[in-house]
Specification:
- The chain has a seven-stranded parallel sheet, sandwiched between helices. A six-stranded parallel sheet has the order 8-13-12-9-11-10.
- It contains 28 helices and 17 strands.
- The two termini are 43 Å apart.
- With 607 residues, it is α/β, with parallel strands linked by helices.
- Strand 15 and strand 16 form a beta hairpin.
Amino acid sequence: MHSNNAKQILQQTYGYDDFRGEQESIINHVIAGKNAFVLMPTGGGKSLCYQIPALCLPGVGVIVSPLIALMQNQITAVQELGISAAAINSSMSGEEVYRAKQAMRSGDLDLVYVSPERLLMPDFIELLNDCQIALFAIDEAHCVSQWGHDFRPEYQQLSFLAEQFPSVPRIALTATADNATREDIVNHLQLNQGKTFVAGFDRPNIFYQISDITGAKQNLLSFMNMQHNNDSGIVYCLSRRKVEDMATWLSGQGKTALPYHAGMPSSQRAKNQDRFLKEESIIMVATIAFGMGIDKSNVRFVAHMNIPKNIEAYYQETGRAGRDGLPANTWMVYSVGDVAMQRHFIESGDSPDAIKRVEHQKLNALLGLCETTRCRRQVLLEYFGDACKPCNNCDTCINTPSVFNATVAAQKALSCVYRTGQRFGIAYLIEVLLGKDSPRIRQFGHDDLSTFGIGVEFNKAEWQSVFRQLVAHNLLIVDITGHGGLSITTQGRLFLKEKTELLLREYKKPERKKVRESKPGNKTTQLNSEADQELFDQLRSKRFELAKTLNIPPYVIFHDSTLLAMATGKPANEDDMLAISGVGQVKMQRYGLDFLEIIQSDNLNSH
């Protein structure tokens, strides 16, 4: 298998004509025996950056991956390309582990996947000393950093690779890392002498949409029905109970929705994950326990029913949509209650105060993204030190929110919080501002306050929007002990004192129509004619049938984007087929003729 020509391997094995972005520079750098840290968006082709060097260099490429559950899928995908790969982990029998170790020793493996825990075992280090090693690739490298959103202490111990195997190139890769996380990764893994490659954060095919929680379930359902009928997607919820409720409710609405959370038996979790990877039109309803390393390429939407903990988590989770480069949607709703919950998680965690402070700042940055009136993509990319022009592919670009001078409204809201003793929630404060006559307000004597009834220029929904934005602007903070009471922050007190101008989004009554027009189920494909759409559907059915027989995920055979190219390009022979992006020689031999046959009979029928 070993050839030292990276371009040749790309074309013959992977079926791609050219490298994308920084791939070629990274690959050549690693083949030259140098270390690298690679930051590349999900779907940007990170795996090629270590797989191809491992095929070019003598020895086995050792890939450190955090999730045993997903190693097999990664291995299946490379085996389909004719690459020899294995895993060594605790889910395997002694016999399987023995065979994999023998294959490593004898040089029969191109790639071996291991968890960091396995790599640190003395007997495994001994095995490594017996083998010729092409490179070490540390995937999901943000796990190294305590600033990262998915810290794993074992990852920090991987620094030993630099000491024990100084001459073997090391490449660390992740899709998500802010500056502090990047520095941490480079220092912990001792990549200071290596080179850092940052391939940008933009995922132009993803549409971003965020709104408040009003009517969340029904809105999600109509979003699915109108834009993603029969598509695969992921719905994230904050708690296990909410996952179960949501999966049951969606199933009752005629969707195939499966739950996934850490409280389920692991066999059921594995079964649900397997169905999600191998079947079409499955919706996975999950806590954040699900998703890392999921390489299903045709996830068409990712929805969040609650706010995640920071922008990195949001970017990582939404990045699971549209890995094939075709259009995909992200949809999120959030409430002040979510914010209180996330603050509570931070405060009740056992991190040092310095880290808690940073986590609060990161949550504030995410709230800023939620309530921005600017292009969401710009705000998202700027967080990572990247930039773009207004994208015209997010809700704020499509329906630019109007802003209004909210200085007086904010002063009224903050005064009301202050005069009621900084311990009541939004619903109560709004009743005071609107001058509602209720036993509770009379009980506390708040009908005598100067703020009672001073907010009648807005209705309840408009005041909710104002309060939510004041929390996002860090002028108010939600009590994290669970009562949801609001109090004024230092910044809020400063605002009251200096009376600076404040512009907020104008509340818009949610319309019952979606953000953009699209035909149900037809969003992805962008096919010009019904005949092409029909051919594409036939190719997908064939792919599903083959995948079922082989018990592998369909996208491992060909991505949707490759089937689209077949449906529009209609290759007439093997050479034409090999010219299609994603069709390499091994896949041509295994599957090419099956798909050619469908295209040719379609050509005959259409003439």
